[in-house]
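Question thread 4412

I'm putting together a teaching handout and wanted feedback from people who do this every day. The idea is simple: show students a protein as raw sequence, then show them the structure tokens that encode its fold, then repeat with a second protein so they can compare. Below is the first pair exactly as I plan to print it.
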Amino acid sequence: MGIVYSEPACQAAFDNDVRKLYHVLKADPAKLNVQDEGTGDTPLIAACRHGNIKVVQYLLDNHADVHLTNKKQRTCLHYVSKRTFTALDYLMIIILMPILLLGFFIMEDKKRKNEKLMKMILSSSVDINAKDYKGNTSLHYLSHKKSHRLVPLLLEKQADAGVKNNLGYTALDIANKKKFLKIVTMLKKAG
């Protein structure tokens, strides 16, 4: 289950198929930043949306444009920030938790991968404070998700905690509303 893209480069990136992506880009290097007709996603956005670390690294190494946005005005950083556990992930964690804490290790591995993906994107020249069509920045999404590991990474890169979305909320307002005290403390220190 997933997204079906009209652009082969986007589909290969989403499917984590570095080999296919290599061949698409070898045949037409302009496809590196091609935007899908339906979503406006680029291969980099597609890879970030699905958390494909190898593909993201390949695209960044080939100088994919991190500033491009899709039809929702989201950058690759927005999608890294929006990544969460799927229903299947939660099911596996619940089933495997009693068995030698395997569920816990699966959860921690996914968190480490999301952190690695975030660091990769932040190592580029991505706009930390880019707003999507709702006016949300990546910091808004991370504050909404209670992402203790990722919020400090954005703050280290000087993410602006005072940016308001279209509803007038800052990341701090969201964290306060959801009672995520650890994130509230981080954002207050940064503010």
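The second pair follows. I'd like the answer to focus on this one:
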Amino acid sequence: MIEWEQREKMIDRKVIAKVEEHLGIKFPQDYVEWAKKYHGGGPKNIEAFIDSGKFKGMSFYMLCSYNPEAPYHYILEDYEIYVKEAKLPDKLIPFGVDSGENLYYFDFRDGIQQPKIVWHDKDFHPDEYPESLVYICDTFTQFLSMLYDEE
């Protein structure tokens, strides 16, 4: 497993619960525990890469922040810009970013119990280019286990 860097102050569950209420979803517990400590943070070596079996070498830069004052990637702002304004399905909830500013999402379209992890190429809409929305894995824990350092 790669080493992570905390870039924001640790938050408590209530902060995440407010975002969940606003979005009408419930994040998986494994993600909640990780986000409380590492929101706005990421791999210590700037970025990591993902090996999903099908795709190898996709980058991962950081988790979205729960701090509305964050200079970039506040989770609700990313939701408004990359989901609402881009007219993506409402049940895609951003949680992380790659080095090209493409986002990783929890995909709640199949229900609220256990969302899948997907990645979206922001330069294309999945209605026109279905391959721009890529399934990565079933759980956040699996996602973390797929991250590796190129060093």
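Top answer:
Good format. For the second protein you could add a caption like this: The CA atoms of residues 14 and 49 lie 31 Å apart. The two ends are 13 Å apart (CA to CA).
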